[in-house]
Amino acid sequence: MARLNLLQLCVLAVCLAVASAQFGGKRPPKPKSPVAKGDIKYIKCQVCEAIAKQSIKATKDLLEQAGPKKVPEADILEKLEKMCDPDTDEGEWITRYDIVEEDSSLVLKDTGAIGRCKSECRTIARVCEMISDDVDLTDLSAMLFKGKKRAAISNWMCHDASDACSKKPPALTKREGADEAHSPIDEDELRTERMMRSMKAAGLSGTMYNKETMQEELAEMADTYEDNEDFARMLEETGLDKHMPSRPDSEAREPDSGVASDAAAGVVADVTARLQDTVAKVKDGANKMYDSIKGFVGEWLGKKEEAKKPAGEL
Q1: What pTM does this model have?
Q2: Does the pLDDT at position 141 exceed 60?
Q3: Which pLDDT belongs to residue 1?
Q4: Residues 255, 265: Cα–Cα separation, whole Å
Q5: Minimal CA–CA distance to 41: which of 170, 160, 206?
């Protein structure tokens, strides 16, 4: 299968989301990696300190974005409420961390690179949730709003408000599973992931898609709707049919040329331009976003359905 670039990934994501709604509704989400419960007691204090560090960074980012305007305490609280979910922008920081075995302990290391959220990431996220449940986030947001230092926040959060650092973790004897390598993602995939989150937040799709998942979903959907002319035409008009896995009983597809190639390029360019405009309007509301994307990818589908109706039927 040919490698998809960022532009084609964006088009593919929109096609999948619209096709899912147009043909078969929401697809079930991919299962998340399991939490390594046995690791929790070894990393709880370190995760708490990482939360304190990240909460201060998130607040500084809000202040920089606001410029001369004052940041409401409610905005800080909103960030804190989402920071333990690695599938959100606020919780993306969790995917940078790797749990590493050192002598008789587990150490939380910041790799500096956003990665895929596998078992260790889910474990860190679970510990983050446990600590957040113990801590009054309203009190934490008030401390951040007042500009409290990291040491004061860490001491309050990890020693006073929770028992995260109340005692030294035990010596590591045996882990439940093998050490998991951190898996960073490239810039193109990261931008696509973030766009998908915005689309999901706007209610466009019930499924999150990364690069590999999108290609898998496209292949699965093509198998399901292989006899559906509407779906085949949508793939062809967006140029994504060229990225379908080859079938043993099918002839190799000749590359398009001339007018056909120009037409395909025009379609992709048009889709891209409208997609960029759509993503910029995510916060304006889910309905506007859905109508806009559905309009430029699925417009002809509606026309075809109208053509199929008997004369006089509304």
Answers
A1: 0.61
A2: yes
A3: 41
A4: 13
A5: 170
User: Do residues 274 and 292 lie in contact, with contact meaning Cβ atoms separated by under 8 Å?
Assistant: yes
- Pairwise CA distance, residues 256 & 119, whole Å: 44
Question: Phi first, then psi: what are they for 109, rounded to 5°?
Answer: -120, 130
DSSP 174: -
**Distances from the Cα of 33 to the Cα of 126, 212, 295, angstroms:** 12, 16, 36
Reference 28, options 203, 206, 196; nearest CA is 206
State the DSSP string of 250-295: SPPPPPP-HHHHHHHHHHHHHHHHHHHHHHHTGGG-HHHHHHHHHH
Q: Are 45 and 165 in contact (CB under 8 A)?
A: yes
- Smallest CA-to-CA distance from 278 within 214, 202, 218 is with 202
pLDDT tens sequence across 77-127: 999 999 999 999 999 999 999 999 998 899 999 999 999 999 999 999 999
Instruction: Give the Cα separation of 166 and 80 in Å (integer).
Output: 23
Residues 6+ apart with CB under 8 A from 252: 246
Rounded to whole angstroms, how far apart are CA atoms 152 and 142? Answer: 13
Helix (H) or strand (E) holding 124: helix 119-134
Place of tokens 């002809």: 300
* Domain ranges, ordered by start, for the chain: 6-29+186-247+255-305, 37-160
CA dist 123 and 179 (Å) reads 13
